[in-house]
Specification:
Pentraxin_domain, binds calcium ion, 226 residues, binds 2-acetamido-2-deoxy-beta-D-glucopyranose, calcium, metal-binding
Length: 226
């Protein structure tokens, strides 16, 4: 009996979740906690270039993480946060912080943010609501590699943990995609305008493999009536 239980637990751990099509839906993070998050799963082990795009809606007036990817080498291997004090979007890539100032955005409405990085040039760029930032150097010469843990709603200070309630995300998030290359400005424009674009080949909102921990809800994305 005990052996059977162990066997079942091992089977459950080994079986990947069935990816879900979240088109027209959003994750709602309804309260400030240091636990609630969504863990996204990708089988990719190595990334020499990255684009992450997502939409968010919040009324937070403090620092918060929008996307947190850690590896066993770097807790901020690809992390995007909003620094409210300095009004900056700050990608952290391979633990190197890049600051993009003058990026203030209105609270209580949807925004899109796309972040690109390429390990050969080391250049990163942020597109907030389709507006490109300066292209800045962050880190070059090595790929993001080794068992990534990708989390929405919390910021990882260690591989898979070290959450801080004061960096948690409260609000809604949708259309999360990740690619293993730098999207062209035209592809980014298509994403921003919600036209047909090539879905992420690392994370795809239309076939998302994820696990919800604590209070995060999947809801219909509210849009205005026509
Ligand atoms: C979070 O911020 C509040 C208000 O600034 C502070 O009182 C509290 O100690 C902080 N909590 C942690 C875990 O840092
Ligand atoms: Ca932190």
């Amino acid at each position: 009996m005990k052996m059977l239980l162990v066997f079942l637990l091992v089977m459950m751990a080994a079986c990947p979740a069935i990816p879900q099509d979240l088109s027209g839906k959003m994750f709602t993070f309804p309260q400030q906690t240091n636990t609630a998050h969504v863990k996204l799963t990708s089988s990719r082990q190595s990334l020499g270039a990255v684009t992450v795009c997502l939409r968010f809606f919040t009324d937070l007036r403090r620092e918060h993480a929008l996307f947190s990817l850690s590896t066993s080498s770097f807790s901020n291997d690809f992390m995007i946060q909003w620094d409210d004090k300095n009004k900056e979007i700050e990608p952290h890539i391979r633990d190197q912080k890049v600051e993009y100032g003058g990026q203030d955005f209105k609270l209580n409405m949807w925004h899109s943010v796309c972040t690109t990085w390429d390990s050969s040039s080391g250049l990163a760029q942020v597109w907030l609501d389709g507006q490109p930032s300066v292209r800045k150097y962050s880190s070059s010469g090595s790929s993001i590699s080794g068992s990534p843990i990708i989390i929405l709603g919390q910021e990882q200070d260690s591989h898979g943990g070290g959450f801080d309630i004061n960096q948690s995300f409260v609000g809604m998030m949708s259309d999360v995609h990740m690619w293993d290359y730098v999207l062209s400005s035209c592809e980014i424009q298509k994403y921003v305008d919600e036209l047909n674009f090539t879905p992420g080949n690392v994370l795809n909102w239309k076939a998302l493999d994820f696990q919800i921990v604590d209070r995060v809800l999947i809801e219909e994305k509210q849009s205005s009536c026509h």
